[in-house]
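job 3f2a | input accepted
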Amino acid sequence: RLWRMPDGYPLATLTGHTSYVYKVSFSPDSQILASQTLVNDETIRLWQMPTGYPLATLTGHTSRLYEVSFSPDGKLLASSSMDNTTRLWQMPDGYPLATLTGHKAARMATFSPDGKLLATCDWDKTIRLWSSDVVELSRLPIQKLCQQNRERVKKILRNKEMTKEERNWLEFIQ
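job 3f2a | predicted structure (174 res):
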């Protein structure tokens, strides 16, 4: 259910998933809500806010979903799954842009604060960083996304003037 704050007035009931909803995530501008289930329904649903109107149902994952995460500019949504993939979706229409592989079960996906990096992790204790080198991830033709090893990402970040957020991100990955 969608509730108005602070009075708790019910605005909408969002229905459509065939299993219990496991996670939800708002776009940075609060105009889209993404919802996902954990089992028996490998879909992500997009809802227009605050009306609760259904915008799209994203399909493609073939196993349990673990995470949905919007890029800071709201142009991309990343989803991770036990099917060994992280998928990138164009917002607001949910068009599938890329399938990133390399994990045994992609557990989490999160964008760096500047949106230039996507970090994914796995049960095998690995973290993968996906980068567009110097070009912003959200402006890069998705087919050119490439997996960067940690040393390459650090080298790229060291060779340019970094913002405070980038420095914090670099400290985080070390």
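job 3f2a | Residues 133 and 153 are 8 Å apart (CA to CA).
job 3f2a | closed
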